[in-house]
């Protein structure tokens, strides 16, 4: 009498395994529980039981409630997938706008000096809780000024994903500097990103980006690094079209900017030390 239940369990396991193989055959590395319930036509409790077995075997990883990553043999040793292989499907599942940003975007753009193991994603508000599971380490940042400009669409093995352009990546790094280890940690990255910056990218940013103090800091840093003079002048022309006020290079809540000796009106209150 036990033969039939055992046979059905084996059949179910093969069905789920077959579905995962189908996903991998079209270069998809993630799926949701809702997706399985719809595609497999099996009871939710039964599917969850099989998912638990696959998690214990390190064949899949539960990234967020109801969303899973497929750990292929290529990534079995690290138990981690590149974020660009699943971020588009994740945020489609969450129904939220996003882009790969900060040091993660810098690395994809070729500014790989800062070798970070953490992934950085920027989303609409409200903020998601950060994820730290096994070797998966994702930090979520939010912006109150969402704009689809300067968000590029790139192609990965798993399809498209969204990423901040070099210009947006630089201002995001500067804006969030206090949460990313300080301005010196990103100097070399900004210098490398300057090499990837284009005139059209910068001009597009200036049509909408609202944080003028961040633009002042960006202008000061690219001038300090001797980046493209045309870019400096485009940025400065935008700033001086309205009144702008002195700012600290490194924001401090208990300090106000003092005397400034540069046209960007940036009080250099830290010793700049790039390790490039």
Write the layout of secondary structure elements.
Elements lengths: L2 H23 L4 E3 H8 L3 H13 L3 E5 L2 E4 L16 H8 L3 E3 L1 H7 L10 E5 L7 E3 L2 E7 L8 E6 L2 E6 L1 H10 L7 H14 L2 H8 L5 H13 L4 H11 L7 E2 L17 E2 L9
Parallel strand pairs: 5-7, 10-11
Antiparallel strand pairs: 1-3, 2-3, 4-5, 6-7, 8-9
Structure, explained:
With 276 residues, the chain is of the alpha+beta class. It folds into two domains: 3-75, Arc Repressor Mutant, subunit A, CATH 1.10.10; 83-267, no CATH class. It is 42% helix and 17% strand. The protein is built from ten helices and eleven strands. The strands form four sheets. Strands 4-5-7-6 form a four-stranded mixed beta sheet. Strands 1-3-2 form a three-stranded antiparallel beta sheet. A two-stranded antiparallel ribbon has the order 8-9. A hairpin with a 2-residue loop joins strand 8 and strand 9. The model has no long low-confidence stretch (mean pLDDT 89).
Structure keywords:
single chain, 276 residues, alpha+beta, Arc Repressor Mutant, subunit A, 2 domains, four-stranded mixed β-sheet, 10 helices, 11 strands
- Gyration radius, to the nearest Å? 23 Å
- Total beta-strand segments: 11
Which stretches are poorly predicted, pLDDT < 50 over at least 5 residues?
none
User: How many structural domains can be distinguished in the coordinates?
Assistant: 2
Please outline the major beta sheet: 4 strands, mixed
Q: Estimate the mean pLDDT confidence.
A: 89
Q: Estimate the global geometry from the Cα principal axes.
A: elongated
Strand content: 15-25%
Number of helices: 10
Structural class: alpha+beta
**Helix and strand element order:** HEHHEEHEHEEEEEHHHHHEE
Spatially, the strands of the biggest sheet line up as: 4-5-7-6
Instruction: State the share of residues found in helices, binned by percent.
Output: 40-55%
- Ends: how far apart? 70 Å
